[in-house]
Fold this protein.
Amino acid sequence: MAVSPDKQAPEAGITTRRPRR
């Protein structure tokens, strides 16, 4: 679940540690 949002998020890197979801 950390790879899916990581590709959708514009800042691929912060989403891995801080999911904006």
